[in-house]
Amino acid sequence: MKESDQIKDLTWDFDQSWDSIIKPAACLCLNSLDFSDLFDEDDSEEDEQLLTSPPSQHLSVAPPPPPLPPPLPPPPALPSPCKGAGIKSHTLKLHWRELQNLTPLPRMTRFGKQTIWAGLEPVQLDTNRLEYLFESKATSTSFKVVSGRQQKQSTISVLGMKRSNIITIALSSLPPPRLLPPAIYSMDSSVLDREDIQRLEALIPTEEELSLINEAKAQNPHAPLAQAELCLLTLGEIPHLSTRLQLWTFALDYDSLEKEIAEPLFHLKLAMEQLAASQTFRCILATVLAIGNFLNGCKARGFELSYLGKLSQVRDTHTRQPLLHHVCVLLLQLYPQSSDLYSDITAVTKAGKCDYSLVQSNFAQLEAMCKASWEQLKVLEMFTPEGSLRHKLPKILKECEERLKVLRAVHRRVINRFHSFVMFLGYSRAMVRDTRAEDFCRTISNFSLEYRAMRQAILLQRERE
Questions:
Q1: How confident is the model at residue 449 (pLDDT cuts 50, 70, 90)?
Q2: N- or C-end of the chain: fewer Cβ atoms within 10 A?
């Protein structure tokens, strides 16, 4: 068989191989991280276009998704929102951003058909006490929240002192130069590890350096080369050294690069599940909504969740206790089985520490590296001697490609699910476009930490009494 035919048989068609990445992935598992509960509904192109298209383009209902749990029960009948209905405006006002037009979600999602507000139970309040505690006084009518080593004379040395020292230091952690070529040709990780490859990348000789060494060697054929010069000359004899090291680095780094993308996505997926399942979170929303509607004298159906972070800054006008204190007291009274919230949503805290714009950038970079690796492989096939490496490299890259398919599907579905989740919380499409996952999770996490601290302080005070 001709050499060209062997190369053709051993190497996948690059374009065909790369195009196959866009095909759906069947098993959504990345090492120990299981994303298999991301349904086809999360592949909706409607959600993918959400951030770039005007709202009017997303009003059509998507095809029905796989069977999901039944939606939440319908909400109790509420009168239309009104300003100052049935109450005198002598209480402090909560300057929240009221959610308008809480219509059913455009399609059935994992979280149901209705928003979270539709399933909240009404909360019975002691309105007389609230009116007393948050009485608007003349002094508090406005509430604003701010928010070289010297070489021996008998050796040939042509490199500068700085470059020579860098090479000598690197060689102290590497095998002898004579052992480097066979290890690099075979990509033997038992001889060179990831740190060794990184050191070698800094030692790749330039054409000018090789020319100087060869000229000096020709002028003094019997004089030995200094250690640094010998290393560069040895490495310079390896064809496409930089390409080999890059390809080897990609094969070794793929696991960690994949993990940097998959772990934040897993935290976000789990964060949505924990928050949607937290009964304490729903009780808090219902209580704050009831208090705010009373103080504002209206019947809002929901509010933007960023206001939760301001509950500790609004204080009543008599005891000077923050509104968060009164929310905690009410929950302990009305919902004694409620938790401290923070312990229920640990994944929210983890997701709040991630940068999902960086996750997107890392994913695009990983795709580019995978594509470039196939190009590098085609180049090396021309210079790699017959052996196991010619069979091992395509196998490694094919495995990385298959895992990249899964990662692509996971990334798309988690982000689309987050968009659905924010809409489940009552946010409009315009608000969804402006909501960053890390900012949202950080807001909820910080509030839950404040809530836990306030709750613990109240319980401790009761024990002392």
A1: very high
A2: C
Residue 151: is its pLDDT beyond 50? Answer: no
Contact of 437 with 418, CB cutoff 8 Å: yes
**Is 353 a residue whose pLDDT tops 90?**
yes
What structural domains does the chain harbor? 161-238 (no CATH), 240-464 (1.20.58.2220)
Contact in structure between 38 and 409 (CB atoms under 8 Å): yes
Mean pLDDT of the chain: 81
Residue type, position 63, single letter: P
CA distances (Å), 111 to each of 15, 69, 417, in order?
A: 39, 8, 9
* Integer Cα distance of 115 and 435 in angstroms: 17
What secondary structure, in 3-state letters, does the chain show? CCHHHHHHHHCCCHHHHHHHHHCCCCCCEECCEECCCCCHHHHCHHHHCCCCCCHHHHCCCCCCCCCCCCCCCCCCCCCCCCCCCCCCCCECCCCCCECCCCCCCCCCECCECCCHHHHCCCCCCCHHHHHHHCECCHHHCCCCCCCCCCCCCCCECCCCHHHHHHHHHHHCCCCCHHHHHHHHHHCCCCCCCHHHHHHHHHHCCCHHHHHHHHHHHHHCCCCCECHHHHHHHHHHCCCCHHHHHHHHHHHHHHHHHHHHHHHHHHHHHHHHHHHHHCHHHHHHHHHHHHHHHHHHCCCCCCECHHHHHHCCCCECCCCCCEHHHHHHHHHHHHCCCCCCCHHHCHHHHHHHCCCHHHHHHHHHHHHHHHHHHHHHHHHHCCCCCCCCHHHHHHHHHHHHHHHHHHHHHHHHHHHHHHHHHHHHCCCCHHHHHCCCHHHHHHHHHHHHHHHHHHHHHHHHHHHHC
pLDDT at 20 over 80: no
Q: And the tokens for 426?
A: 């009552």
> Which positions ≥6 away from 363 have C-beta within 8 Å?
261, 407, 408, 411
Instruction: Provide the token pair at 236.
Output: 């310079």
Q: What percent of the chain is modeled with pLDDT above 70?
A: 78
Token readout for 143 is 């509430």
- Over the stretch 217-239, which tens digit does the pLDDT of each residue have? 888 888 888 888 888 888 988 88
